[in-house]
Amino acid sequence: MRNAARGGGLRWGAAALAITILFVSVPARGSTNLLNNGDFARGSGESVDGWRTDAWVLTAGTTEYKWISPRNGEPPELEVNSQHDNDARWVQGLSLGPGWYHISVEARTRNVLPFFTGASISVLEDGISSQDLRGDAGWTRLSFYLRVGARGADVDIALRLGGYMNLTRGQAWFRRARVVEIAGPPPGVTRVFDLTAIRKTEATGPIGHGWTMIAAFLTLFCMTLLGWRMMSEPPVQQGRSESIRRRKRA
Fold this sequence. Notes:
This protein has 250 residues and is α+β, with helices and mostly antiparallel strands. It is built from 3 helices and 12 strands.
């Protein structure tokens, strides 16, 4: 009996150990940063692995971009310095599967204009952005929540100074950028976006069944035909009027 009990205890202990190893080896949902080099640890000169620079105004001297390597125990940073009005950013393309994501970064600013969009983290789609920092601001966590539909999506994550039709100037620094998958946003948050719904509203042209496109082409054809006839009729009418005048004179 003692051997049997001891054997059962060993089996339960082995099972518990296996379960513990399984849970430890699988990262918890929401703990894995999906960005490539999101902490900016890998870089050289003014380039940073996984990131590229982009802007609305590309003229030389408008905006400078810098990688600040780790120093004095502080994490590395990315800098955007716009001497003239611009919408400038560090950008990384990312493929996301269906689900919810928390997208965040720490940012600070100096001399950013107070009346246009300042420093933020955003997706380069219609209005998908965190809150923004303006003026002189210390390190602040900026974030938003994004839902991706069943088919997944490719997005561009931007560490940004300025915005669409909101060109600004000043300096912004970013560190610890993160994109993590979560079960869903907590209650009461305001920066929540549905990517699928936003892209549907941005779509242009005939949407829906095939007959809508056929109807559009038929309508265009009829309008073209009507316009051609209207343009061709005046000379005929003029000729008839001239003929009537000649008959009256005779």
